[in-house]
Amino acid sequence: MRSPxxxxxxxxxxxxxxxxxxxxxxxxxxxxxxxxxxxxxxALGQNGTTGGAGGPTVTATTAAQFLAYLDTAGPLVxxxxxxxxITSKQGVRPDKTIIGVGSSAVVNGGGLEFHRxxxxxxxxxxxxxAEDDAVSIGRDxxxxxxxxxxxxxxxxxxVDIARGAEYVTVSWNWFDRTDKSMLIGHSDGNxxxxxxxxxTSIHHNFFDGSRQRHPRVxxxxxxxxxxxxxxxxxxxxxxxxxxxxxxxxxxxxxNAPHPCYSASGYDASGPGRLVQRNNVFNGSxxxxxxxxxxxxxxxxxxxxxPAADVPALVRAGAGVxxxxxxxxxx
Length: 330
Known about the structure:
InterPro entries: PbH1, Pec_lyase, Pectin_lyas_fold, Pectin_lyase_fold/virulence, PEL. By secondary structure, this protein is mostly beta strands. The protein has helices at 10-19, 63-70, 191-194, 310-317; strands at residues 42-43, 46-47, 57-60, 76-80, 83-85, 89-91, 96-100, 106-108, 111-115, 118-123, 126-128, 135-138, 142-147, 150-152, 159-161, 166-171, 174-176, 182-184, 200-203, 206-208, 216-218, 223-226, 229-231, 238-241, 245-249, 252-254, 260-261, 273-277, 280-282. The strands form four sheets. The protein has a ten-stranded parallel beta sheet with strand order 3-4-7-10-13-16-19-22-25-28, covered by helices on one side. The chain has a nine-stranded parallel beta sheet with strand order 5-8-11-14-17-20-23-26-29, with helices on one face. Strands 6-9-12-15-18-21-24-27 form an eight-stranded parallel beta sheet, with no helix packed on it.
């Protein structure tokens, strides 16, 4: 595993910048919009999530370039062009924007790891065949925005958030037949680190034939799950366990036999709390609710789309190649 603890020396970075693919004026990354939800909240000394804004823009066309840029200290906008083959989970330093060029940017075979990192944006990338997690946000990382990506063929978690991480937004992604889509909370025994943390917003994602963990939550509160499209989810949609607090609203569940677990817990994990409202259940089971949850509006304002409109909105807007289209701004 690549450690994020070593900065690339200035001379080495200069040489990489000189050898990188040129950045054409008409191919610059799209102007970033601010995330909604927890990644936009001013907290922990961070004013929202701005990624690499203010830093230089570079283009990675090889794994060597990509890994070096991830490990560079200071703000950086990293354009990913073509397919980058990596292994394991690679550390990402703070203040980075990692953005795919066009609709063909791929990170294959490995994933990204956040270890005490912050202020990172990951957009418009297709993650394929990760041998572990595709995106692993942990170890007190905060202000991370995962937006308009696609996940397929991931061995473990597509996006996992654990070990005290918080102020995360996961928006407009396509989870294409993933298995363990999203775990929030490391384990049943990790309450001392995760209780009061793991504040996460999950909105306008397409959970397409994905099996479970959309998300599975331990301890975190509030976890806000809204305006997502759940389709053909064989095991379950959302599981709130170990006294987590999850608000589920404005989602559209289609052919999801078990949309929500909470009062009964899940597997070996004890019960959590879950509030549901304004959801559509089309050919799906009932959403199990339990207790009360801190309201997301305590932290941020948001606009809720009607759940009946969610399938069309999400199909049109989720995934790669969409951030320049006329889709609702996340």
